[in-house]
Amino acid sequence: MADTNASEETTIDASKEQYETVDEMLARHRQEIKQLQNKETELKKAAAKGSKAEQKAKKKQVEEDISKLSTKLKEKQLKELASQGFSSSGSNISKDETNEKKGDIETLVRAIAGVSVTVQQEHSKPSKSVKRREKRAKEEADREQRIKEEQSNVTSDRMVENQKLEKKLKPLGLTVSEIKPDGHCLYRAVENQLASLSGGASPYTYQNLREMAAAYMREYKTDFIPFFLSETESAEERFEKYCREVESTAAWGGQLELGALTHCLRKHIMVFSGSFPDVEMGKEYKSGNGSSLKLSYHRHAFGLGEHYNSVVVVNNITA
């Protein structure tokens, strides 16, 4: 009896779909996609439990399952759209869509983007607003695909970089202490190092360090301004704008700021890297009492740009 009821319900659902308008079909498609996205979110939350190894395995399984479900859903929706006459073989989409695969993908993108599409008569042209929406939807889909590809490459590069850095630090009895990637990482890493040296709190917060770096750069402007030559604005303007960003925004810091901080703090700074040669700054402040500041530079940490962490003695990681 249960099988009979299920069969009847499937028949009823199929019957309903046969009498859908194009807009109703697209609305249902969007709802199906939203349900799949919600399912993915729930599965990822459930996977974020257990050890790192378990989480990694669960996450991989979730990605594989969602990929299969997504592919299956797209194939189903493309088939349904084709049944309504949306095919590059005809003239229902546009005269330029001569490639079937391209036509199908662009049609699906319309559905995902929520663009209201109606079957057009032969020789009719879509309105400019529809073309603009379709173009934006296509560009967004392409952008997301590029991001996925870049993230895949970044993951691989990050693993190689971390392995090289670990191989370099381990013989020295050192390890990386993770710093929050919020744009203040360089200054937070220096703050972490100062706290480690003092055995308590750092005498300067990351914001203090930002202001100190900007003040030093302004005081010794002639040492820094050659880095700010520009064809569109004066070096003075670019330099002052840069200093304001250093002291009052979350702009990422780099070698210029490290150069300023090594003199402000009168500290030798050692920067380890798995992608580039190690860098020493402020050698004149180097002493044998272990007072050097140790940072690590990561080129592929998050796929967003450079990142700095604090380097500490193994089993002595501080917050």
From TrEMBL:
Biased composition (Basic and acidic residues): 136-151
Record field: compositional bias (Basic residues): 126-135
Record-linked SUPFAM superfamilies: Cysteine proteinases
GO molecular function: cysteine-type deubiquitinase activity
Annotated InterPro entries: OTU_dom, Papain-like_cys_pep_sf, Peptidase_C85-like
Domain OTU: 174-314
GO terms classed as biological process: protein deubiquitination
Chain positions covered by the region annotation Disordered: 40-64, 81-101, 117-159
Family assignment from sequence similarity: Belongs to the peptidase C85 family.
Compositional bias of kind Low complexity: 83-93
Protein name listed in UniProt: OTU domain-containing protein
Gene3D superfamilies found in the cross-reference section: 3.90.70.80
